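Cross-check.
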Amino acid sequence: MLIGAHVSTAGGLAKAVSRGEDLGCSSIQIFNQSPRAWKPSNYDQDAFDEFREAMADSGVQSVIIHAIYLINPATPDEELRAKSLASLTHALRVGDAIGATGVVLHPGARKDAELVPALARAGLLIGDAIADSENCPVLIEQMAGHKGILGLDFEEIEALTEAAGNVDRVGVCLDSCHLFAAGVDIRTAEGITAMVDEIEEKLGLDRLKALHINDSATEFGSRRDRHADLGQGEIGEDALALFLSEPRFEGLTATLETPGKDKKGASAEDVAFARELRERGLAARRS
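Predicted model, tokenized:
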């Protein structure tokens, strides 16, 4: 498992790699542009080459891009839809240029619109962005389930995948906080096994590409997306240890999106603690 954290690209793309190394990361997650603005980044080939060189010279083995929060693939609004398509396509092209494992995408909000047409709209936009880029996958993030948000369960992700053309470049990113808040019981090895079995049945394990590792500040089934530091929320250390040690997660990119003690994101100590929890989980599974 490639455990790492979300890091900043301030000062240039390659700076993200050194920040990841400072945290002891085996993987990093970045935004390819400001997450709350439509203006695209303007990286040139030199920036991409410098990033790839920095990765090759580092212990960081994987980079994930997180698409900006403004994107709404499910919207019927033509202007917002055009902006969303352009932004997702741009993120995928940056992913192509830097060799990213994938672009994590929140699949959108339908608000009060009907579910099935919203899933079809979102899937179509994802498919269009894929068709206008080369290799980088879109990783649909499973969501906590607050009102109108798509991606609550694997049936919805399956429908999004099919609407996108069922192409190989559609994958999945699981978030431990989102799963717990959505009512997926990941507190036991049996519960985690059942969840991964469902993914295998509905989507295929080859689509499972990435994890977000977070505790939950809200209770089981709350449908509220509130991240907490590992072991400081409602999921707890023991359950997170089991989650991190799930055998079918071996080799996946696993990103901490925790707030951190100083509210500036995961620290080196947090990354090390995630590895400690994984080792604890592996030992528990062997016993």
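Residues 2-286 form a domain with the TIM Barrel fold (CATH 3.20.20.150). The mean pLDDT is 96. Passed to J.P. for a second look.
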